[in-house]
Amino acid sequence: MALDAYRTSGWQGPSLKAIATAVGLTEAGVLHYFSSRDELFVAVLEARDREYRETYDLSTLDGVWALLTHTTRTPGLVRLFVDMTAASADPNHPAHAFMQRRARTIVELIKPFLGPDREWQARVLLAAAEGLQIQWLRDPKTDIVADLKRLRALIDPSGDE
Question: How far apart are CA 153 and CA 159, in angstroms?
């Protein structure tokens, strides 16, 4: 339900009060289950990733592109992801371990769609995707998927769309 609050929120994402209302608790009640707001936010991102794995066929490149296209319909979640990505630079932040695991998972997920230098190509595409999300938040006309497809074609000219 907290994920739904983000899914339907605008650019700023929902307040803790809106999340609490969505799950039928008070703000204090929500924080009873999480040691901090940031821990709650990481749980929202984990729920989002689980839902995406169930919804999109990420064993195909078309499924990966469809997922990336979908992200532009959820600005509140993208903003949360960007905020937690920046916060995860602190090894003591609740998002740190999650973002490390997520990066490893994504690199492994996209390596099969790349050429001979798969590890490097996957890391560069992941970094570009994260950076393009920031650009998209500043300018929603940014076409994340088109830019990533162009980048992929440049770093792996032998690959298929």
Answer: 7
